[in-house]
Specification:
There is one protein chain. The protein has two domains: 3-88 and 111-165, Up-down Bundle (Butyryl-CoA Dehydrogenase, subunit A, domain 3); 173-292, Nuclear Transport Factor 2, Chain: A (Roll), CATH 3.10.450. Helices cover 54% and strands 15% of the residues. The chain has helices at residues 3-26, 29-45, 54-77, 98-106, 110-116, 121-132, 137-144, 148-165, 173-189, 192-198, 223-232, 281-286; strands spanning 90-91, 199-208, 218-221, 240-245, 248-253, 261-268, 271-278. By secondary structure, the protein is an alpha+beta fold.
Length: 296
């Protein structure tokens, strides 16, 4: 195998890992692919003959690429308003194709990604690389051109934010599904009491309807408010298709085969503690949802 083909093979063996890093950093499937491609281009331009740990080298490079992308995005978002939901990774409950399986393996909970979106780019890089992928602080410091002690403080601040605001889901997917199915059954029946019984009193519902659609973008707090909203939209319950969303119980809502929203749930102690909804038509069209458009 010649040198170029060897380098290509080595990079491809690390592609899934790099995509996982980029997705956690960016919360966007398309931007993650762009970051991985840019990492490949930088690898081609670099002399890595003396690199002992190519996986570590690639991880720090994709981290640097993502940091630059986050800084650019942060300046652009100053002009934007409303709720922003990260890209969901959607799979069927059975019959997952190999590409979906790889994406789901790369995914983390949407609720965690929402919290990561509230961090500064530097905090996010420090937390993702150190806490999620075990990169030493001195290597992250080199990427950020800061002292390791400063990077350690960034990761610590990010960790506290995550622990406070990103609920851990029930690890049993079957228990998650029971709570989510009960939510939709109560919504379909207009049963307010049944909805209250399955919702955590402090539940948070976040909906991203996209730019120019303020009615579809909202943050709701508390079981009574969320239950009332669920009854209002109960007419859509018959069009719900159960799904895996970032590896947890979720749903695709597709009346007449037209996907209008993706819903991700966090269930803990048999109660739904958060619901994240992507209802932005433009972003839904950019996702690969071809398997959900056949209707029911």
């Amino acid at each position: 195998m010649d040198e170029v083909n060897l380098l290509t093979a080595q990079f491809e063996s690390h592609r899934g890992h790099l995509r996982a890093v980029a997705y956690r950093m960016l919360g966007s499937l398309s931007a993650s692919e762009d970051a991985v491609q840019e990492t490949w281009l930088r690898l081609n331009r670099a002399d890595v003959g003396d690199v002992q740990n190519l996986a570590g080298w690639l991880t720090t490079v994709v981290g640097r690429v993502c940091l630059n992308m986050l800084r650019t995005r942060e300046s652009q978002r100053e002009q934007q308003f409303g709720v922003h939901m990260p890209d969901p990774v959607v799979g069927r409950l059975d019959g997952i194709d190999p590409e979906q399986e790889l994406l789901l393996a790369d995914a983390v909970g949407l609720a965690l990604l929402v919290v990561l979106d509230t961090l500064s780019p530097a905090e996010r890089l420090a937390f993702v690389l150190h806490d999620m992928f075990g990169v030493p602080f001195d290597e992250i410091a080199a990427v950020m051109q800061r002292e390791p002690a400063a990077v350690r403080q960034l990761a610590s601040r990010a960790r506290r934010r995550v622990q406070q605001h990103a609920p851990l889901p029930d690890p049993d997917l079957a228990r998650q599904r029971i709570a989510v199915d009960a939510f939709f059954a109560a919504s379909r029946a207009g049963d307010f009491a049944a909805l209250i019984s399955v919702l955590d009193p402090d539940i948070v519902l976040r909906s991203d309807g996209g730019q120019g659609r303020p009615i579809a973008s909202m943050v709701l707090n508390g079981s009574s408010t969320v239950a009332g909203q669920a009854i209002t939209f109960g007419r859509l319950a018959p069009f719900v298709q159960p799904a895996l969303v970032n590896g947890a119980a979720g749903a695709v809502v597709a009346p007449r085969g037209d996907v209008i929203s993706i819903m991700a749930f966090i269930v803990r102690d048999q109660k739904i503690v958060s619901i994240d909804v992507l209802a932005d038509p433009a972003r839904l069209r950019r996702l690969d949802l071809s398997g959900w458009t056949a209707g029911q």
